[in-house]
Specification:
The chain is built from eight helices and two strands. By secondary structure, the protein is mainly α. The relative contact order is 0.09.
Amino acid sequence: MLIGVAAGSVAVWFSLIGGIVVCLGVASGVNNLLTARSIEDNGSCPELRSPGECCYQTCDFATMDPAATEIANRVIDAVAQLRTAQARAWLDPDLPRAAHRLAWEVLCCLDCTRAARDLAAQLADAPEHAALAAALHDTINVIDYRLNESAQHLAGCVVLAHEWDRKLRDIDTRHRGDRELSSLQEAVRQGLATETESLLHNAFYRITAARDLTEAGPFPWEQPRLDWTTNSQVTHHLTD
């Protein structure tokens, strides 16, 4: 009986591992189909669908173990970031499409491990299947390691794109700053203050002359110790 169980467990193990390998091969062999699929943030795909049917969303991997969820989230975020990066104009025109295709392959591989992960979790509390659980766990870890490497590479593309975006913004800021400085230097004409001062003196001379001719009496600023403000500014300019 024990031998039979062990043999059955080994058979199940080989079946699951074989299924994962087949899925990995299928995911890498149908690139033309994968590029037609959509990788979206939550809310953009049809509600009544299975994961990978027409698109992948972060919520498709939310119920998987933390390692798989993190890889999926990073890959989906990388694709979204590369779509909107200003640096796209400076990159290989095929890079966003290639990133989408490779991200889809990563997500397909994760999706193919879903049943194996569920079984490994179920066998964690079954001592009689400890060898099978360990084999599943080790194999999934190897797959996660490889997929995590791919996720890191995609994230690296995003970091490079964002850094170049920042450089582009810095260049634009410097150019705008130079333009504004140039326009500010020409905003006020050199002789403006001199001409307005001359106008003030002209007005003062004419008004005081008219006052003298009409004997209208002194202006407020000519009165001793009067509290006034606006007219004192005029006197200040005239007495300089």
